[in-house]
Specification:
There is one protein chain. The protein is of the alpha+beta class and 749 residues long. The strands form 5 sheets. A 6-stranded antiparallel sheet has the order 3-2-1-6-5-4, with helices on both faces. The chain has a 5-stranded antiparallel sheet with strand order 8-7-11-10-9. It binds adenosine-5'-diphosphate (ADP).
Length: 749
């Protein structure tokens, strides 16, 4: 080996021994003392050759612990590689001039045996020194060499103990690391022996299952499982050990662990078998438990969230159906109980009656315990009873607008229940607020879990949906009340109108009898031969008769109008020959036309040769009315022209005059009862009822009436009626009028 490499390796070995500068050790000191004794020398050293110094692990007869390496006796022994014996230093040229020989302490003799732990590299010497020249016996030198071997053994022991130290440090570190993993793991770790007894359990598992270590160590692991699973556990282990069947071992699966308090905890369990142990037993099983509560909790929360959403969705989309079926609030109350896991729930609306807020219950869980309380509940549900006490647990919510959350009702000052009332453990009352106004409230009680603030936040969408629904509910109620009011007003108006018509009808009837008598007597007086009237009396009687006639016309028309309004105008429709009716009407009115100096013309009766489906009396009334108006409101030498034309399934009849005409602004008043236009007709006799009647009659027969006019030039009144069909419709049939009306409306523009 190269010198350099040798020296490096030698120094590495020496340094690895970690012996330099260590305190004295009895084992070395006992050896040097023995050497001093056996060789009878004053100085004995265990010298180790460091890079620049020689350091003495053990020394006898020397005060210093180290000397420089260069020029040392030992250096020569190391070069020699075996026992170096210098019996008289002054006679050895290598040492004769050595300062420790020439000067104090005047060393005269040296014997050194090199020391090595691997047989190759020499780390130092076991050497003796004397102040006088010596001649050692062969036995003494043998002792020295034997004891040098002992020193080497001590050095090796030292190396081994160092190694052991290191190893034990390493294994302590490993153990600590294992402990840290075992106890610090975010999973439960349970080690059991082959019979299922718990050998080791980590902190996580203890905390998860609520035990102290000493409670479970040594007991069967099945106590940590719910009974239905524990029953099979030992059998599974046994099967696995006997035939390797693996119902549980080597698999991960979701199971339930049992908490000390009896609660079941969802966990993932992976079991593995460590087959051999140091005692040559059947090995242990290691179970690793991961807590799935949070995952379960999240899944549960998601499920709840979904439930809440579907409740809100249904509440909002189906609210009309739910309201009309009176099930909206019951539905919401039920949903509230389900969502919060509560035994009881209530939803109510705040009403402001008698000047203070009162709660009207919309939906309420049954809390009754006897007949009396049952009655109370149904009174509350029906709205027959309102809650008012502002100091009660409910009152603080619906009057005070506060959220009340209490998980220990027994100690709540406001909690007072009548004897027999089912016990209430916990309570949550939440106001339903909209823009600062408390619209209502909901309350829940007796949930398995304590109520928390977070629940109130979570329920916010529910609360605001309730607010929305209460507002909708109110609007619907208001609208229903308004509709009802309208219906009542309409019924009242109809009743008043009927009463008016009946009164008019009765009045007209009562008036006609005496009026007929007046007219009869007036005519008698006019025709009396025995007492002829003078000119003045004749004019007066004529006036009586004329006025009476006018009154009679008026009464008849009013009676007709009243009948129409009361729906009592009986029409007897039949196939009517229009030509016949026009001829009759013209005949009737020709004398009057003459009186007014008006010509009455028609385009020839052949044009009227159509059959209409109408009441003949009433149709005659229509014709006479329009024709007499055309005569009355005409000018002298004027004319009246009546025409007919067939259009689709209708006949269109027009009466044209050359009279005063009607101003556009008067048109809207034309068909109003008792409405007579002022323009130039003050002197013309009339009642203002004729046109109204005409229109009503025509419309009831399925027809229509219209007018066009040019003031000063004349007017044209026209009407349309459905054509009759004598072949297909028997005259006895009372129904076809409707069919006719429909046909006329369809075919007449
Ligand atoms: P009356 O003729 O008895 O007053 P009507 O109901 O028949 O009642 O007519 C109502 C009003 O319509 C008449 O007072 C008159 O002012 C106006 N009127 C009706 N027909 C004509 C017409 N052909 N030309 C001008 N004005 C008319």
């Amino acid at each position: 080996m190269h010198d350099m490499d040798y020296e490096q390796e030698r120094l590495r070995q020496l340094h690895d021994l970690q012996i330099l500068d260590t305190p004295a050790e009895a084992s070395f000191d006992r050896l040097t003392a023995l050497v001093a004794d056996l060789l009878e020398v004053p100085i004995v050293l265990v010298s180790l050759a460091d890079q620049d110094r020689q350091w003495f692990k053990s020394r006898v007869g020397l005060a210093v612990s180290q000397t420089p390496r260069r020029g040392s006796f030992c250096q020569y022994a190391l070069i020699e590689g075996r026992l170096l014996l210098v019996e008289d230093t002054q006679r050895d040229p290598r040492f004769a001039n050595h300062p420790l020989v020439n000067g104090a302490p005047h060393l005269r003799c040296y014997a050194g045996v090199p020391l090595s732990i691997d047989g190759t590299h020499l780390l130092g010497t076991l050497c003796v020194l004397d102040l006088k020249p010596r001649r050692f016996t062969a036995r003494q030198l043998e002792h020295l060499q034997t004891l040098a071997l002992q020193v080497e053994e001590l050095l090796r022991l030292h190396a081994r103990s160092l190694e052991l130290d290191r190893e034990s440090r390493r294994s302590r570190k490993r153990a600590a690391r294992y402990e840290a993993i075992f106890h610090g793991a975010a999973a439960g770790i349970v080690r059991i022996d082959s019979s299922g007894r718990i050998v080791e359990i980590n902190d996580f598992a203890l905390q998860l299952l609520g035990y102290h270590r000493e409670e479970v160590l040594g007991s069967n692991v099945s106590r940590l499982m719910p009974s239905h699973w524990a029953r099979f556990h030992d059998r599974y282990l046994k099967n696995h050990l006997e035939d390797g069947s693996d119902q549980i071992v080597g698999k991960g699966r979701r199971v339930e662990a049992l908490h000390r308090n009896g609660q079941r905890i969802p966990v993932h369990l992976a079991v593995s078998h460590a087959p051999y142990d140091e005692q040559g037993g059947r090995g242990d099983f290691i179970g690793i438990l991961s807590d799935l509560s949070e995952i379960h909790e999240t899944a549960h929360r998601l499920h709840k969230q979904q439930q809440l959403l579907s409740v809100l969705h249904r509440g909002l989309t189906d609210y009309r159906a739910l309201l009309s079926g009176n099930t909206l609030w019951t539905f919401l109350k039920h949903a509230l109980r389900e969502l919060t896991g509560s035994d009881y729930a209530l939803i109510g609306e705040v009403l402001h009656t008698e000047g203070s807020p009162a709660l009207k219950i919309h939906a309420l869980s049954d809390l009754s315990w006897n007949a009396e309380s049952q009655q109370l509940m149904s009174q509350l549900r029906s709205g027959g009873m309102l809650l008012r006490n502002p100091d009660s647990l409910l009152g603080q919510v619906f009057v005070g607008g506060q959220t009340i959350l209490c998980n220990d009702l027994a100690s709540h000052p406001q909690h007072r229940l009548p004897p027999g009332h089912p016990p209430l453990r916990n309570y949550l009352g939440v106001p339903i607020v909209d823009q600062g106004e408390v619209l209502g409230m909901f309350a829940i009680a007796n949930s398995a879990e304590p109520y928390r603030e977070a629940l109130v936040t979570w329920l916010e969408p529910f609360t605001s949906t309730c607010a929305l629904l209460i507002k909708l509910y109110r609007q619907l109620k208001e609208r229903a009340a308004f509709t009802e009011q309208l219906r009542q007003t309409r019924d009242e108006a109809e009743a008043a109108s009927r009463a008016k018509s009946e009164f008019l009808s009765a009045m007209s009837h009562e008036l006609r009898t005496p009026l007929n008598a007046i007219l009869g007597f007036a005519q008698l007086l006019q025709c009396s031969q025995r007492h002829p009237l003078d000119e003045r009396q004749r004019r007066q009687i004529e006036q009586i008769e004329k006025s009476g006639q006018h009154l009679l016309n008026l009464i008849n028309e009013v009676l007709d109008l009243a009948r129409i309004e009361a729906g009592k105008l009986n029409l007897n429709p039949e196939a009517v020959n229009l030509a016949e009716l026009v001829r009759e009407a013209c005949e009737t009115l020709t004398p009057i036309a003459h009186q007014h100096g008006v010509t009455l013309q028609h385009t020839g009766l052949e044009h009227f040769a159509v059959t209409l489906w109408a009441d003949p009396t009433r149709l005659r009334q229509v014709l006479i009315n329009l024709l007499s108006n055309a005569i009355k409101y005409n000018r002298p030498q004027g004319s009246v022209q009546i025409d007919a034309q067939q259009l689709g399934g209708c006949v269109h009849v027009s009466v044209r005059d050359t009279g005063i005409g009607i101003a556009a602004e008067d048109m809207p008043r034309l068909f109003q009862p008792f409405s007579r236009l002022e323009t130039g007709n003050a002197a013309i006799e009339g009642t203002g009822v004729g046109l109204v009647l005409t229109r009503q009659i025509l419309e009831q027969m399925g027809g229509r009436i219209g007018v066009t006019s040019r003031p000063g030039l004349g007017s044209e009144f026209w009407f349309k009626l459905p054509l009759g069909d004598t072949l297909r419709i028997p005259s006895s049939c009372t129904q076809p009028l409707c069919t006719r009306q429909a046909r006329c409306k369809e075919s007449c523009p």
